[in-house]
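Schema walk-through. Below, the input block comes first and the output block second. Nothing else is stored per chain. Lengths vary across the set, and this one has 448 residues.
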Amino acid sequence: MRTGDQVVQSLPWRWRAQGTIFVIGGLGFLFDAWDVTLNAFLIPLVSAEWNLTLGERGWVGTANLIGMAVGAFAWSAVADIIGRKKAFSLTILMFSVFTVAGAASQDFVTFCAFRFLAGVGLGGCIPVDFALVGEFTPTRVRGRVLAAMDGFWPLGATFCGLTAAFLADLGSWRLLMLTMVVPAFLLFWIRKGVPESPMFLVAKGRPTEAKKVIDDLIAKTGAPQEEWRLPELKQAQKLSLGAMFGQLKDIWRFDPKRTGAMWVMFVAVFLLYYGAVTWLPSILKAQGYGTYAAFMVTTATVAVGVVSALISAWLVEVFGRKWVIAITAPLSSVALVMFAVQINVDTAAKLWITLYGALIQVAIPALYAFAPELYPTHLRASGFGWASSISRVGAAFVPVLFGAILWPQLGLAWTFAVIGVVVVGGVIVMLVAVPETKMQPLAEAVPS
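--- output ---
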């Protein structure tokens, strides 16, 4: 007789059942993208009100991104204690409350503190949402479903840009922040209707509740009724600081070359992404663009990611993950340098920055698909999670370094060229140290 978790993993996929949880989880990812992209539009507006230096402006993005990195760790632990369902709702609630507080800030330091706390709330969305969606998704479609979650990112970034452009003439960054709170509060109430993960309920010794969730899911999917049993109660491993660093030790022991190469590649790609997108509206305004025009160009740069994600999904199956990253990441660096070189030529500059947006957003989904395939099952989530977290920590300091040191000292073209050199270095390391995974069985043993 099969266990309940085995039944859940073999059910047919139905939009009214697992699909609803997927969409609600994806909306959390959408708000993550919205908030990260919001930093780019807040920088010129906040700096105008408080007369900030370039270095100070960078803290608008850095405070928020550091908060997200902290939240990614903290909420994973919280979700293991209070459950996916509660954490699923509380991450959005925390984000909403501190976003409202940030919009009411009367000085820059208080504003940055609230942006940090809002980031802590929203930073928990990715690990909590992916955990909950993954535990409800049938095994045969889990890879595609979790990969499709990444498609919500460019949608969120695009919605943020369109909202910012629409409100540009009002010049109110406070209103810009508040506009995303209303749908976030609505999502909080919607999330309250999402069932708790049956795997979590069994692990916590709540079999009656777990049985109800599984029976409801079987009924909603229209699967044939069958006798099943609850899995044996096991002591759930609590996520602790010791356990987290135990995972870190294990992924480095498995293959230090793969782990090191992927960390370098993640940091390099996200330096390239955040370094450009976070500062793009400010760069364009310094070039003489009006607020609306600067915001619309930035929106176009991130909006092409909707198409790029689809192209990336096709390319990685045809040419392989490694080569898609190795080609598109350096080419996006070249496009960014050419944008800086020809920034005075309006049409050419717009074409180059749009090309950059298209290429970098092909590279990122390919990187997300590549990293988990390099680790065995028991390290797959932690291997990807640590690489992603390290990239967020590294990227968190990009806004400050860019505004305080690189742009003022080197100029725009040389700043992007330096970041491009880092990207090329990361690609070389990846090509040498990491095997291609296209059409290969997933790693399950230490490489010889």
